[in-house]
């Protein structure tokens, strides 16, 4: 028996119809069996690793473990266990932090941290491409929020003529503004939010420059850098310790968020911080206080994967992953040089990838994704509003378990699609582009960067 339709249903239907007309309607889909994964965030292929599966089952069956399916309570009621606190200590030690606090997801870690850490009068300065969870956390906070141009620290880093400001200019304007005296005296805090690796472009934040800029401008110690290491955990730094550890900035970054649902192949997250900040989050982070804690099976999975990383067993997987990344990028560059497509139709970043993520920019990204899927390669189109308007792309993710043969097959499918598109005139539309005739245009060089 279903509920009768209401005016609210009609409103929802209208909004959904409009989004479908714009070619932006989201749907839940299944991954077809037998397709090659070039889409998921499991960069190290650990979720299906046979050694990890065996170790995980062995840990679960250990007589010393008090096995239960769920925690049956929040951490502050009945959900806290020695396993939770031992795991926090293990992870904090691995990443060179003094303390850590587990959350059920990276989304909950960010919303919990950003909603309660800034105090009244404080300010959050964030990279314009920061994850949606940070935006939601800021909205729940009592702080002002100001974006800065993506990965741009100084004025010379901004490559366009827009009014987007780099970090140094944003901080300078704050110091010279109405609250400048409070900032200069250290009575007001500024939280600077960035990601280690950005999930849609795959680029790495200029973190050392960011930290130095914050320390220079906010010399009273009231500048606090927060790094979301979701896509750098497991993939960047010695044994996957992340970007902060790779650069030796453990004592200069105020907080880090490491998530376990991507390269780690599990679920959940941890905020790495000082013991005082950990205690504060236990008291004020609502996404921790009012949710059931992770159960023993997931805690054991996370512990197992960290043991695998710490032992060095994943080093070979990481080396193979970045070999495949280099091979894929070289093949894609060769395709671009051979066909010289109009950049709106197809382009890639010419600089070597810094992560397993390679965006394939195209106004016909949906068509490209469908073509690859039909040939057995799972890639997905990412369009606005998930990415800024005009930057639609197919987000290509490489994995340690992919093979050179699979990479070459995917690139062959991409080239086949491109040849078909270049061979015919395309009608305008949300998934089509009217191309000028070859004789009428002078093609610009390949774009150097996707940074906005």
Ends distance:
50 Å
Number of strands: 12
Supply the number of structural domains.
Answer: 2
Helical content class = 25-40%
SSE sequence, one letter per element: HEHHEHEHEHHEHEHEEHHHHEHEEEH
Shape estimate: globular
Structural class: alpha/beta
Average pLDDT over all residues: 91
How much strand? 5-15%
Low-confidence stretches: 427-452
Describe the main β-sheet briefly: 7 strands, mixed
If helices are DSSP runs of H or I spanning 4 or more residues, what is the number of helices? Answer: 15
CATH topology annotation of the largest domain: Aspartate Aminotransferase, domain 2
Radius of gyration: 23 Å
Highest CATH level, the class of the largest domain = Alpha Beta
CATH architecture of the largest domain: 3-Layer(aba) Sandwich
Strand line-up across the major sheet: 2-8-7-6-5-3-4
Q: What's the CATH H-level homologous superfamily of the largest domain?
A: Type I PLP-dependent aspartate aminotransferase-like (Major domain)
């Amino acid at each position: 028996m279903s509920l009768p339709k209401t005016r609210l249903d009609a409103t929802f239907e209208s909004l959904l119809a409009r989004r479908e007309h714009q070619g932006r309607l989201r749907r839940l889909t299944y991954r077809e069996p037998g397709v090659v994964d070039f889409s998921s965030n499991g960069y190290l292929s650990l979720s299906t690793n046979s050694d990890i599966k065996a170790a995980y089952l062995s840990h679960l069956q250990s007589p010393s473990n008090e096995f239960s399916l769920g925690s049956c309570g929040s951490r502050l009621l009945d959900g806290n266990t020695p396993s939770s606190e031992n795991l926090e200590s293990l992870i904090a030690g691995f990443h060179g932090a003094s303390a850590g606090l587990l959350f059920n997801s990276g989304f909950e870690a960010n919303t919990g941290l950003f909603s309660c850490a800034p105090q009244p009068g404080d300010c959050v300065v964030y990279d314009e491409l920061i994850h949606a969870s940070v935006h939601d956390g800021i909205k729940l906070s009592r702080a002002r929020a100001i974006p800065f141009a993506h990965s741009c620290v100084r004025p010379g880093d901004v490559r366009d003529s827009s009014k987007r400001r780099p970090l140094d200019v944003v901080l300078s304007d704050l110091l010279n503004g109405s609250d400048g005296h409070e900032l200069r005296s250290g009575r007001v805090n500024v939280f600077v939010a960035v990601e280690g690796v950005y999930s849609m472009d795959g680029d790495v934040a200029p973190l050392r420059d960011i930290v130095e800029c914050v320390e220079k401008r906010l010399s009273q110690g009231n500048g606090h850098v927060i790094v979301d290491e979701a896509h750098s955990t497991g993939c960047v730094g010695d044994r996957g310790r992340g970007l902060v550890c790779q650069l030796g900035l453990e004592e200069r970054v105020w907080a880090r968020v490491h998530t376990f649902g991507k390269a780690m192949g599990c679920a959940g997250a941890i905020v790495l911080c000082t013991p005082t900040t950990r205690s504060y989050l236990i008291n004020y982070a609502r996404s921790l206080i009012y949710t059931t804690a992770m159960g023993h099976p997931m805690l054991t999975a996370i512990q197992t994967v960290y043991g695998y990383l710490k032992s060095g067993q994943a080093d070979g997987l990481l080396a193979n992953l970045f070999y495949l990344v280099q091979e894929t990028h070289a093949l894609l560059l060769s395709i671009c040089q051979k066909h010289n497509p109009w950049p709106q139709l197809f382009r890639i970043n010419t600089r070597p990838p810094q992560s397993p993520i390679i965006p394939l920019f195209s106004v016909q990204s949906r068509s490209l994704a469908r073509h690859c899927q039909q040939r057995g390669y799972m890639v997905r189109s990412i369009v606005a509003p998930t990415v800024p308007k005009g930057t639609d792309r197919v987000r290509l993710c490489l994995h340690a378990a992919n093979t050179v043969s699979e990479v070459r097959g995917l690139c062959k499918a991409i080239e086949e699609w491109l040849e078909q598109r270049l061979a015919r005139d395309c009608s305008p539309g949300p998934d089509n582009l009217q191309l000028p005739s070859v004789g009428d245009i002078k093609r610009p060089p390949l774009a150097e960067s996707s940074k906005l």
